[in-house]
Amino acid sequence: MAKGDHIVVERPHGWVAAGMLHHGIDLGDNTVVHFTGATSQTAKVIRTNIRTFAKNGSIKVVDYEEIRNSFSYMYKRYKFRKLLDEYCSMENRDPDEVVRFSLENLGRTGGGYHPASNNCEHFATLMRKGMPFSLQVENAVDNIDSSLHPIGNFVSQIVMELLRFKTNPYQHQPKDGVNYLGSIYEHNGLYYHECYEKPFFIPPRWFVSVSSEQWEEIDQKSVPYPLREINTLFE
Asked: Which residues is 45 bridged to in the sheet?
């Protein structure tokens, strides 16, 4: 993985939405910008530690050419083939440009989360290519149009996407009322603390300090780039 990559993680066993894919943009400094939230109403673009993004799942880089080659066009509708070819053929944005656009979008709600028209994959593809696209959604719609799969398959995918906002039932419980995750970073002599009140509870709170002892809370858009991670207090 590298700066500006479109990355994806599959939720592991033990999650309500096990097997669900979550997308984001790798900033190349152990942080990721992605569109997520506690509920569909409060979802927004946030920046988190890459381990928080993964939530114990396996991360991989999205390979657009591999995506195009992996689909059999025999039964796929023309509109789907044309859209997929158009998207995969688009030039990737320069990594620095991807990072810049991603950071500029921090805090954006995009008009509210919607599993079929405004999800995490739409955001990541928009940042990487300049065009919002969700392969999961388009492929599900194509399955319906071609009558290869029952409509229930599409409905189940939408339900699973909504369940992405559920918490992990197997996560650890709080210890002594303290914060769980405390990733500490450094940038130009200042320390930055990405703070979670409980495991993977998003969005995180961000703090800045000169001495790493007295912290002042700041908005996530004020957190500089790139960061150098120096300590993580939660595993």
From this structure: 35
Query: Cis peptide before 226, with omega less than 30 degrees from 0?
Result: yes
CB atoms near residue 117 (< 10 Å): 13
> In this model, does residue 34 exceed pLDDT 80?
yes
Element spanning 114, H or E: none
Whether residue 170 contacts residue 183, with contact meaning beta carbons closer than 8 Å, is answered with no
Q: In what order do the strands lie in the sheet containing 44-49?
A: 44-49, 31-36, 21-26, 6-10, 58-61
Predicted confidence band of residue 70 (pLDDT cuts 50, 70, 90): confident
The two structure tokens encoding residue 213: 């002892």
pTM of the predicted model as reported, rounded to 2 decimal places = 0.81
Side chain identity, residue 122: H
The arithmetic mean of pLDDT across residues 12-36, rounded, is 81
DSSP 62-88: --HHHHHHHS--SSS-HHHHHHHHHHH
DSSP state of 33: E
Q: What does the pLDDT average to over 54-61?
A: 87
What tokens does 49 get?
């530690």
Give the number of residues written for the chain.
235
- Provide the residue ranges of all domains of the chain, joining segments of one domain with +: 6-165, 182-231
Name the range with the highest mean pLDDT among 9-18, 148-157, 217-226: 217-226
**Which tokens go with 167?**
């918490």
Topology of domain 6-165 in CATH is: endopeptidase fold (from Nostoc punctiforme) (3.90.1720)
Q: Going along the chain, which residue ranges are E strands?
A: 6-10, 21-26, 31-36, 44-49, 58-61, 182-187, 190-195, 205-209, 216-218, 228-231
